[in-house]
Input
Amino acid sequence: MKDQSHPKWNQFSAALREAGVAHRPEGEDLSAPHGFATRVVSRFKADQRADATGLNLWRRWSLAGAACALLIVGGAFLVKSPEVPTKPIIPVPALDDMSLPELSIR
Amino acid sequence: MDDRQPHITPEILDAVRGGDQAVCCQVVDMLYPLVISIVRNHLPRTEAEEDLTQEIFMKMFSRMKQYSGKQPFEHWVSRIALNTCYDRLRRQKARRVASFTELGAEEAEFLDRTLLGERDQPQPREGGRELAFELLSKLFASLKPREQMVVRLLDLEEKSVAEVCELTGWGASRVRVTAMRARRKLGETLARLEADPHTQI
Output
């Protein structure tokens, strides 16, 4: 249903429709410029190829990167010497040995 | 949708998906009138008409896998075209500020005649459409892109809310609210112009 709460706009839009703003004028050339379709399709194909190349490169290099990372981690794991439990330099006192100093009240 | 336009059949679409270059070109040629009409209606002053049209077709090809076939292919392409125009309108941040005094004598006369309800008087035949287009773009400059799009589709192209929803992908309530706001703004601007011709649109 047409909104009748804006009479000014309704009046003006009717005049605009009458003037033909809603449709392309009769006889206007709407055909594609010469070679337009070929340009669009070629560009799309080129973009697709570029995307495919990028994707392949990414796949290849990410796999190579992952393999390198695995090698480094593996190497580091093998090379690293097993941890020997070290004796503490200062022996930890037993709880019984710990005596608090006496407090003197003057 | 114009019935005179050649229909894109599923066989043609299969060939496009298969990468048949000749069929792809054929599809572009078939859909060009539809796409350029949308571009010229929604962005009448754009200099980059061909670039925009090319962008629409590129989107069409790259999103071909998303087309489910539930709606006619032409509708789907119209939606891409409208959304691309909408994105372009949003990027055109600058709002033109025009005043009634900036209108040419013919534009002012057209507006006067319309607002005073003297539409029975003979309309200028020569360049009448361009005149109306010019006036419309000045009025639309005060609207948000979404408002411009909705009002154009509903009030000028006389599409239904359901059709606008299908074309834009926006919800019905959003379309109705946007239209209401836009009409109120336009009504106020026209009333101001009528009351004080020196007002800023």
Summary: Residues 172-195 of chain B form the longest helix (24 residues).
